Amino acid sequence: MFELIFLGTSASAPSVHRGLSAHMILHREYRFLLDCGEGTQRQILRSGLGFKRLNKILLTHSHLDHILGLGGFISTISRWENLDQVDIYGGRSTLRRVSDLLFKVVFPHGRTPLDINLIEVEPGVILEDDKFSVTAVPVSHRGPGCFGYVFAEKTRRPFLNDKAEELGIPFGPERSRLVRGEEVVLADGRTITPDDVLGDPVPGVKYVHIGDVGRADNLLEVCQNADTLVIEATYLQEDAEMAAKFGHMTAVQSAQLAQEANVKTLILTHLSRRYHTRDVRREAQAIFPHTYVAHDFDHFQITRAGAAKVENT
């Protein structure tokens, strides 16, 4: 399962009700900040999430409405938070701009209180452990080095406790080794294989997050069978010509992608101030009914069943 909290859902400039692009993604001990528009650190505080363990930042592209908040955010965590380092992932042109912001403006003398690692992204897996991976996928927007990200749990085989009890497998390292796919020899000499106690493979959760993007035909395979797709809907279809001119998507185009890719849940973000939320929702749901239009501080749990909104208590 992944948790997703929208910190900023406006396009290009903030509005009274929407901040600039920023998202928090939680998975086990990991906390990712995806994009960091102006005002993000205040949105983090307002959300109640705080800065603890927030040491991985994924950037979709170099436009200021997605990166300008990094100056204040990095300045704050370097002074007040208990972090030794922060890893910032992005394309080459994005990191060049981030480097200027951080090392010419925030830390002009070259001395930083924490290690700031700028990690250039190439298409492919950029982070992985034994349970999940994060993959960078190139997208078409204005300028080079634009990326979306796929968060994917690995396929697993559930441990069958009843079967283990029948076979007399004790609690302890034997069971751990079987879960890892290793054979074990019990005290009575019997050899137990993983197939004896592991169930059928269960696919993990697939969550695709696409930032600003001007075309979807090259994203169909990436989004195929995603449990949740987050993507922009800057324009309505009546302004499709303008959307194409500026390298953005309409709500209709994003909904068509979700439908064609057999996505379970679609969440639209990066909304222009020129439209009412209800009009964006209506346009998308006419094509893909299981669509949400995100607001700042919306909180979703993403599972194999799709995305479920967590109501504030």
Describe this protein's structure.
The protein has two domains: 2-156 and 201-309, Ribonuclease Z/Hydroxyacylglutathione hydrolase-like (Metallo-beta-lactamase, Chain A), CATH 3.60.15.10; 161-193, no CATH class. The longest helix is centred in the first third of the chain and has 15 residues, at 92-106. 27% of the residues lie in helices and 27% in strands. The strands form three sheets. Strands 6-5-4-3-2-1-16-17 form an eight-stranded mixed β-sheet. A seven-stranded mixed β-sheet has the order 7-8-9-12-13-14-15, with helices on one face. The chain has helices spanning 40-47, 64-67, 70-80, 92-106, 161-166, 173-179, 194-197, 220-223, 240-246, 251-260, 277-285; strands spanning 2-8, 22-27, 30-36, 56-58, 85-90, 115-120, 124-128, 132-138, 147-153, 184-185, 191-192, 206-209, 228-232, 265-269, 291-293, 299-303, 306-309. It contains eleven helices and 17 strands. By secondary structure, the protein is of the alpha/beta class.
